[in-house]
Design goal:
Elements: E1 9-13, E2 16-23, H1 31-43, E3 48-53, H2 59-72, E4 75-79, H3 81-84
Parallel strand pairs: 2-3, 3-4
Antiparallel strand pairs: 1-2
Helix pairs in contact: 1-2
Length: 88
């Protein structure tokens, strides 16, 4: 039996099932965390995986997530400071 897992976001966005994770700090998206999150989105049969952070998501983090999502057959939606906190 697999351990308990949770997602921060699960729902429908633009007619696509979306699942994913939101962090206060993008540095908390470690390679292991990214792999677990994308795997969970796949197991939930999502169409897209959301990676979101209130600060800026580094390009290497986004690239790693994009590769994992590609391998899992998922779209990737990345949201960070410009989209989540545009006035700050």
């Amino acid at each position: 039996m697999q351990g308990r897992a949770e997602v921060d976001i699960f729902g429908v966005h633009q007619a696509r099932v979306l699942a994913g994770e939101v962090k206060t700090k993008a540095v908390d998206f470690t390679p292991d965390q990214l792999a677990r999150d994308v795997d969970l989105s796949k197991r939930l049969r999502a169409d897209a995986h959301l990676l979101a952070a209130i600060d800026t998501v580094p390009a290497d983090t986004e690239a790693a997530a994009r590769e994992l999502c590609c391998d899992a057959g998922l779209e990737l939606l990345v949201l960070s400071r410009p989209q989540l906190r545009p006035a700050i």
